[in-house]
Amino acid sequence: MQPHALPAAEAARLIRDRALSVEEMARSCLDRVMARDRQVKAWLFLDPDLVLKRARELDKRTAAGLRLGPLHGIPFGVKDVIDTSDMPTTQNSPIYPDTRPGRDAACVAIARHSGALIFGKTDTVEFAAGGRKALSTNPFNPHHTPGGSSSGSGAAVGDFQVPMAFGTQTGGSHIRPASYNNIYALKPSWSLVSREGARMSSLSLDTVGWYGRTVADLKLAAEAFRLPELPQPEIQVKGLRVGLCRSPVWGRIEPTGALALESAAKRLEAAGAIVVPLDLPPAFDGMAAARDLISADEGSGAFLPEYLAALPIMPPDIKARVERRGSFDAQKLRAAYTLADGCRAQFDGLFGPALDVVLTPASPGDAPEGLHTTGDAIFNGIWTLLQVPCVAIPCIRSARGLPCGIQLVGPRFADNRLLAIAEACAPIIDNEPNWARQTLLG
Amino acid sequence: MQPHALPAAEAARLIRDRALSVEEMARSCLDRVMARDRQVKAWLFLDPDLVLKRARELDKRTAAGLRLGPLHGIPFGVKDVIDTSDMPTTQNSPIYPDTRPGRDAACVAIARHSGALIFGKTDTVEFAAGGRKALSTNPFNPHHTPGGSSSGSGAAVGDFQVPMAFGTQTGGSHIRPASYNNIYALKPSWSLVSREGARMSSLSLDTVGWYGRTVADLKLAAEAFRLPELPQPEIQVKGLRVGLCRSPVWGRIEPTGALALESAAKRLEAAGAIVVPLDLPPAFDGMAAARDLISADEGSGAFLPEYLAALPIMPPDIKARVERRGSFDAQKLRAAYTLADGCRAQFDGLFGPALDVVLTPASPGDAPEGLHTTGDAIFNGIWTLLQVPCVAIPCIRSARGLPCGIQLVGPRFADNRLLAIAEACAPIIDNEPNWARQTLLG
Question: Does residue B304 sit at the A interface (CB-CB below 8 Å)?
Fold first, then answer.
């Protein structure tokens, strides 16, 4: 297999064993980008010379016998709303055509100091919030969206251009592209991973996460970010209690999404899991609307700098968000926070002897046609507002050959336990071998 | 009166009326800095040429008849944990000796686009969180602390070097220095003012606020930041219902702090306010501990980049915060969040016909002696965790001639109403005329 097609965890092992150099890995990824970029358009900034320079620096560390971080040598894409010290950060906005913040975002600094090869900046919905869309296409069909707002990160990992990448989620910007691009994703519990240096849109919602091609990949980064709580015992699927949650927004499901959820449930059941329907308490019916209100009201302050500095080139939907401030309703916002607070405590309380993990859609269906849309975040917003960890796992192919995944959700701050559960469930839910996937791509 | 001694609102009016140029204002502030800096040491970065250049740019706007922002021409200090496009941001840390982020933090961008003259960077406790202290001294007595972590911002405004400055608060870093430096401060409701580009320590707690020398000054910036909800009717102190809240941490009060609270209450009562003791519900007894836990656990992720990149020069207290991650207790953290959530809703619910505003200590007493301490944040942490707006108002002088203020607190997102109440109460609580103050300083 070409190095670029390796999952991160396998590449990391080969690099550690000196069976693969970081430069070889980097060159393979660059070749893949060259071959595919005209179609997939995942990158807003990519400097091959810089990539190779950094790769050789990492190889020197290996050669010197220095202590190697868990991500040593892994090419890592960075959504272009996240700052990088040695590359521009444009937020895909004409307001920031060539901004160089000169400092790594916290997540980039942590990845870099854990040995990651920061590869380039991936295309994104403007500000990860609205305005113009990414130019990136779905690796499985260029007439379809890769999802968004983490469009380029999802497409780059899905297209085997890099094994891992950072995304962000405020509504469904991280987990939904995972579903559309046939890849794995972790959206960690809110506040566990520093979001400093990632464009701010909503304090309560914005979350930095990462993509990989296996759960083992996601765990590599979880180790680098020291996610609690370690260590986790190995999980057995037999007897695992899975709550099948259609969620209060089930009315928005599409046939492909319904099939993915049903397939995952059946596969788990066949492997001995105890799958039981999970109806969320009535208060959760208001969560999608509460998320929208919180996102809009928190955004009204977050985008004021651009409103004052660059009104004529500000996207109308972001402009409207700032102008909400004029009719701000404190009582409604307080009610939305209070609803979310109550649901968080209720949700965490569901877990215990009767429930290990929640299985729920990662997207309404497969990737919609067209690049004017990034798909519908409705199946993600509730979990974002709950601030709980979510893991996306690939599941099925739709009738038109596009992937559709599901997500597993756990209680707040049990991220490593959720990853351990996902690692046990992944080979069952995602029963198409990794190598088979690439043959489907151009 | 020298221009540097003017409150911001008065200077802004004179500048708007072309009775004072921004350059004259800037030169007056620079003269004051020159005269006092050897003692007060408020600044980590101050470039007089840059200040004068920017001042002349602002004067050109005035001369051109352009629309002027609410802060037009007002010299504004910036705590050095907040990014500035044209100055370094060191966080008072040897880890970032000369970092130039090349981009304004959101609050700086908003102030700049509202006409503020970004004056320089003020000294701070390292990262606004721990490690080394600022070198700044209290303008009223150089052997005493100006408080912290917003040490330089508090001292610079208190010493009449600039009329306004930004601070931040995670525990009591913004309101407490106001009390020690005889100035006014607003800590806005959490999430209303973007904290993007201000050093992150705790997502739930970190809040950007500003200092001024009158409530009218605070309102100027509130207008620039479009704080809801406008417009507010004028408030009458007669009949105003004031809850006198000693708070669950009253055991930590000092005689000066007790006298300030009592004096404010008596003065308000004499002016016709209805002052009644307010005992917070029992759950609030746990808020101080909950704040400490949330601050520590959220900080464990926030400081991981420095831990990985610069461990040998990392302050031991910050290092310990990161290492907490090893014994992370999800259940305890969830319980702390749940307690805070419940108290927030309860607190907001206290306001109505029976309660207009809460009066409570801004600090245990006056500024302690020595620069090894920044004083005790115990009377601030509860309100920070409640995410409610707080306004500091000067109140008394202690036996040793040092100022001690109080704070007024309102429900979340009613920041403008709180400012309106503070504007009515300030002349009663703070009954020492502004001009009299400066004669007390060197």
Answer: yes
